[in-house]
Amino acid sequence: xxxxxxxxxxxxxxxxxxxxxxxxxxxxxxxxxxxxxxxxxxxxxxxxxxxxxxxxxxxxxxxxxxxxxxxxxxxxxxxxxxxxxxxxxxxxxxxxxxxxxxxxxxxxxxxxxxxxxxxxxxxxxxxxxxxxxxxxxxxxxxxxxxxxxxxxxxxxxxxxxxxxxxxxxxxxxxxxxxxxxxxxxxxxxxxxxxxxxxxxxxxxxxxxxxxxxxxxxxxxxxxxxxxxxxxxxxxxxxxxxxxxxxxxxxxxxxxxxxxxxxxxxxxxxxxxxxxxxxxxxxxxxxxxxxxxxxxxxxxxxxxxxxxxxxxxxxxxxxxxxxxxxxxxxxxxxxxxxxxxxxxxxxxxxxxxxxxxxxxxxxxxxxxxxxxxxxxxxxxxxxxxxxxxxxxxxxxxxxxxxxxxxxxxxxxxxxxxxxxxxxxxxxxxxxxxxxxxxxxxxxxxxxxxxxxxxxxxxxxxxxxxxxxxxxxxxxxxxxxxxxxxxxxxxxx
Amino acid sequence: xxxxxxxxxxxxxxxxxxxxxxxxxxxxxxxxxxxxxxxxxxxxxxxxxxxxxxxxxxxxxxxxxxxxxxxxxx
Lengths: 491, 74
Fold this sequence. Notes:
The complex is a heterodimer. Chain A is mainly alpha-helical.
């Protein structure tokens, strides 16, 4: 059996397992919108954690981080991984928990629906959908582009970038449109196990093939000592470092697909346990990702720009046999699919419930959702084949955009005086300033655009709420009453 | 709630928790250059060891938060 056939057999086995899980979920999913989009709100600890963590892990980690560590070394771990371990649990507690309570009490399925109810303004749901859509599509592009690169390298050019990108979209589309949330959560448990397991296995096997951990690290230290120092420029300068910490710590709670997965939690215990598992899982995944990038400098020196996004599959090709190369690809596919499915499902649920005319959305919620998934997949593929920027840069734009939603999410669930005009001013102003900052129209003063976008969003939220009339007390009470009682602020 | 009748204690505990969060955020701004020093255990860069220690401290805060500050109410 040739190496290519072995790799193909492993990948086909992986796809077969994912599709079988999707089909089983399809058979067990009633056709109500709550079951299709939220899996009936039954996710317990392991399923919820894998769904949240899987949703959080994309080629940004498996491809983009080794690519960045190839250029900048060990400081990439501090830049990205550590702060997330604190930021994600804190934001789950402060925003995710009240959002989960309100969504459960009101029976809402999407974040846009929750905030439209919070302000009694359906049009605000459209605005939220627009912002979520604008920043989710580039994030999806990073995922699919990552697969394209990995398949291209690991198949040694036999399967091209465009074909691989189309393939991943079609398969994700198939199981997501069939089985909805239940399918995505069940497959995420399997996918999470695949990419966490493979990442650890590859770490030790590749290190062993280099002659051991000590040997490879000392070789890198001798050859490229600068990879062991924190650079003082670019994203590592103090202002940029602090603002990127802000972006990466706050962005996750504003992923619409993350909020929807929080809504799917069965109970508060599952939410808390998911937070507790995060630190260990982050260490297991991120240390190998950063060190892979550093090791690749020994064998593939001189890569420039986004060419370094391919160093992880290059190492796999150099050091592992064909079966494990197949597993590596399955691991990357797993990371991509576990995010892509959630993104697709969430955008489609928001479209059918929050954007389309109510009568239409209520009559055919699942059918229309599936139709939208096809259009979304085509749009993503078009962007991918038009060769976007590096994975890290695209993710940076996307993460920064999501952060402009954080003041609305927080104040909408914690401040009774927060109004729909405050929220609108926050989203509009935050995104205008963010765009102007990315374009270089306003001085950065050493900070990244995300810091200016967030500051503008906060100002817009507070000033907009102060100068606009208060929301009707009954409307606010319907959403915040249960939240405040759960938080112990009211009897 | 977890602490009926202990409002002040709860307030103090929240204050301590957030002070610890701020301390960790400040610590996040610092790091270690390797220079000519040897790798820890022969393979761990100093900055990586510092970050893992930071994550361990953050994990302690997460357990504190989920165990004592985050209510169980639904």
